[in-house]
Amino acid sequence: MNNAIFISGTPCTGKTTVSEVLADRLDCKLIKINDLAIENNFVLGIDEDKGYKVIDIDSLNEKVLEIIDSNDGMIIFEGHLSHLCDGADKVIILRVRPEILEKRLAKRKYSKAKIRENLEAEAMGVCSAEAFDKYGDNVFEIDVTDLSIDDTSDLINCVISGNGDFHVGSVDFMDWLLNNF
Ligand SMILES: Nc1ncnc2c1ncn2[C@@H]1O[C@H](COP(=O)(O)OP(=O)(O)OP(=O)(O)O)[C@@H](O)[C@H]1O
Ligand SMILES: [Mg+2]
Fold first, then answer.
1. Closest-lying ligand to the alpha carbon of 11?
2. From the CB of 30, is ligand 1 less than 6 Å away?
3. Ligand 1 within 6 A of CB of 3
């Protein structure tokens, strides 16, 4: 049985929105990794250049494992740092075409540099690659660009139940890099 499902991906790929719907549907616990880090004072500081919070990943990891160990049913952990933590039965990376992701990131009033950095990371599949390094065949990726929240939730459910072919490598946005060099 899958106990811990981690949902990760570049900022604005819809992790929080879909995880809330999914946790409700599966009637399971949802842990938002960003909130967990803040509540437990795992924020080491702010990277002034990039505007990111710098998180103490080792402490976050310990806390995640503690929660998994002390829980009986299924738990969903969502957040772009989740795939760097241990303890997942499956890691699911949400992918969004950089052209579309750009519009969502722009709405957040991120700097141009931060938007560009995130788009490059998405085009190169950084989260998928990092997760694959740690979790290998237990990593799955879903192109959710044209999917509604409910459709995304359906596909994540397929992955959790072991259906469909969503292994890493099935999504490729590298053409964006070539066209936006
Ligand atoms: N399937 C979708 N279709 C259209 N818009 C979506 C979809 N999923 C999410 N969005 C929109 O994209 C934005 C980002 O969603 P959300 O906050 O869930 O992303 P996130 O991956 O949790 O981001 P972060 O990593 O910054 O926490 C929101 O405005 C949300 O309404
Ligand atoms: Mg979020």
1. 1
2. no
3. no
Tokens coding 175: 């053409």
Residue type, 20: E
Q: Determine the distance separating the centroid of ligand 2 and the alpha carbon of 170, expressed in angstroms.
A: 23
Where in the chain does DSSP place strands (E)?
4-8, 29-32, 43-47, 52-55, 75-78, 90-95, 139-143
Return the sign of the alpha-carbon dihedral for residues 4, 8, 13, 17: positive
CATH code assigned at 94: 3.40.50.300
From 16, 17, 115, mutation site for ligand 1 pocket: most ligand atoms within 8 A of C-beta: 17
Number of domains in the chain: 1
> How is residue 23 written in tokens?
């946790």
pLDDT in tens, 64-109: 999 999 998 999 999 999 999 999 999 999 999 999 999 999 999 8
Tell me the C-alpha distance between 157 and 137, whole Å: 17
The distance from CA 94 to its chain's CA centroid, rounded to whole angstroms, is: 6
Closest approach atom of ligand 1 to CA 94: 21
Residue with CA at minimum distance from ligand 1 atom 25: 11
pLDDT over threshold 60, residue 38: yes
